[in-house]
Amino acid sequence: MHGRRHPKNPHAEAEQFRRRAVLGFVMVVICLVGLGGWYFKLQVLDHEVYATRSEANRIKPKPVVPGRGMIYDRTGRLLAENVPAFRLDVTPDKVADMDAMLAALGKVIPIAPEDLERFNRERRARRSFLPVTLKLRMSDEEMARFAVERWRFPGVELEPYLTRRYPYGPLFAHIIGYVGRIDEKDLAVLGEGNAALTHMGKSGLERYYEQDLRGQVGYEQVETNVQGRAIRTVGRVAPQSGADLRLSVDADLQRAMVAAFGEHEGAAIAMDPRTGEILGMVSLPSYDPNLFVNGISHTDFKMLNDNPSRPQFNRLVLGGVAPGSTLKPLIALAGLDSGLRRPEDRVLSTGMFYLPGSAAAGATRTAAAMAGPICASPSPSRSIPITTGWRWTWASSASTTTWASTASASRPGWTCSARSAASCRRRPTSTKPARSAGIPATPSTSPSARATGR
């Protein structure tokens, strides 16, 4: 019949089951042999390769930035120093979604638009496994906020570092210059060996002696966990700190030169004529170099640029103003040394001088603004007409020349406080050369002070 079932054959079904079982067993054995062979390859044949990779994942090299060299004046006073601070670094290859991370981090600590812009530029210029600084000079409150939420931001670390500080502010700005944040152009010059640096010299002596002040970057071998957090340091190559720089300038003299200008603009330089050392160098008005260390704000930068007096312009080096006379102070010193004149004596400068036996046509005229009474003490702060020098000595040119030739041989001179005539006194001759020569200068036998001003 059509719907009739055939009786089961137990022997055939048993044979079919046996064949399937054998086939399954063979397949399992083949898989186990394959897995065993792969395991043998990993553990025995390729052990060195994968052990090295595993160690590299666990042990991370971490650069150690050296301390920048200090800058001192001739008496050992600090003109540029390093102070400890904290910064926020981001390692891009450890961050899954950079935009989301930055948005979430901005809700925890404030991040300025300038910092974000600079961070994105540096991130594009560096390799992804190198940390990039997001924020400098973290405050205590900002560090506390980040420490609480740190687990939410893998790849973001709080790092200690040394930042630059200029204790005298604008006083030495045109001599020392300043350091600033490293940008992509600086990275191309420094090379990858110095990619861990955050600052470099941008102007003045900070830039001129950059290689000496910078030092050499070291590194640490740091063991990390699966989140990339440092557990312990297993090795270290110490960095080499930068060389210190001792200048020939004197902070007290620099202050006195600035005070002599008062509110006026101009430039002045004081040199030792025996050695050519620069003892003081002033360009006014000046600016505060501390503003540039960690990135100047748009507001401060605009104020400097819009200032008609141009505080960043170095009048002494770049200005086209003629220097003040160097002969007249020498003639005045000759009168003091010979006893013909006293420091408190005053001579009226009329702006006109007649040579003996000459007519009015032979007179030398100066601007009316230069006329007036002149005495020895304040005169170094202004340039006076030649008549003053001659009336100070009341002597022949031969005697003045004789005094100048002996004065150049380190004869005892005079020193004054510029404001008080009573403070003028003889200065003993020193034959011991100065040891500091931080600012290059050409030796000269001219008097030790020059000034220009408006």
UniProtKB/TrEMBL annotation:
Sequence ranges assigned to domain Penicillin-binding protein dimerisation in this UniProt record: 65-233
Gene Ontology MF terms in the entry: penicillin binding; peptidoglycan L,D-transpeptidase activity
Transmembrane segments: 21-40
UniProt main location, coarse: membrane
Pfam family membership, one: Transpeptidase
Feature: compositional bias, Polar residues: 442-454
Membrane disposition: Single-pass membrane protein
Region span, Disordered: 419-454
Record localization: Cell membrane; Membrane
Keyword set, alphabetical order: Carboxypeptidase, Cell membrane, Cell shape, Cell wall biogenesis/degradation, Hydrolase, Membrane, Peptidoglycan synthesis, Protease, Transmembrane, Transmembrane helix
Gene Ontology biological-process entries: cell wall organization; peptidoglycan biosynthetic process; regulation of cell shape
Penicillin-binding protein transpeptidase domain ranges (all copies): 266-357
Protein name (record): Penicillin-binding protein 2
Gene name tied to this protein: mrdA_1
